[in-house]
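Data card: per-record layout.
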Amino acid sequence: MSEERFDTVLIGAGQAGLAVGYYLTRQRRNFAIVDAGERVGHSWDRRWESLRLFTPAHFTYLPGMRFPGPRGHLPSKSEMADYLRSYAARFALPVRMAWRVDELSRDDDGYVINSAGRRLRADSVVVATGPAMRPQVPDVADQLDPATVSLHSTDYRNPDQLRDGTVLIVGAGNSGAEIALDVAPAHGVILAGRDTGRLPVSIGGPLYRVMNLVLTAESRLGRRLMANVNSGKGTPLVRVHPRDLAEAGVERAPRVVGQVEGHPRLEDGRVLGVANVIWCTGYRPDYSWIALPHFPHQEQPAHRRGAVVGNPGLYFVGLPFLYRMASSLVAGVGPDAKHIARLIARSPAADVDLSGYTP
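The structure for this 359-residue chain is written out next.
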């Protein structure tokens, strides 16, 4: 088996991994970035065609390189993917694509990253795979009539994938609301799920910037917000207003709780004979490839600002509310990436002290 040695290996070449790479390059550190995709930006390439970011161009950028375009422009998913590719090229980041990590383990000589007969060793590892790892689909999806088009939002591209007839969208968060508006011109749409509320400020605006500085994982109000974000109840709507859905003819409905003869059953007892179901039900963590002692495979690890307790030299970047509200946004990963790079430079294998820290 071939083997190479690095100071640091970054797993994931999305915005979080590239941002950390930028700072490690400035440190002149010997590192590599590995990613399972075929090219940088592949996760954005795969999103639905009409997707645009919530954040305007002047707020959507990684350290060292502004996003091109007018100040208030909301970038498309393709523009975002192109930006990431340009970013990696501009700073000559050592990205290795089509490099899926099969296992991350550790021995007396540091961390070991295995992939299909290849092996990397490193003193420190940064996991930058993001929160959208494994689509979460309720068991009822497998019990629907086989004639029903049933797909998770990660597989949705455009309305041409759907049959004629009504579309049931399960999950009324941002993805559900945005896809409902995308589908509504050509289909009747029912949007099922609890009301997640709506963010009262615009992302990137002055008030949001203040809130992002104040509401951290180390503040009382920040911890309350973080608990709500991580509860799985859905995040507040950002761009879509409830009246937008009403004007588009989208019908709101309670949660899907089961099925009757292959048709979705709602919490209020109604059974829906729909032709299509799109599951906008989010994602769940999947760290089954991390073979380290006491590491939780189906939940976020205990960490302080991304430094994992009990595993010196292991760091995470790009998770929701890693430290601030914007930690998982393109514009928010920069400060977290800078912090992690400083920790690596200071002591790449230092353990984490969580005493007095209760996120």
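Known properties of this structure: The first strand starts at residue 2 and ends at 11. The radius of gyration is 21 Å.

See the next section for split statistics.
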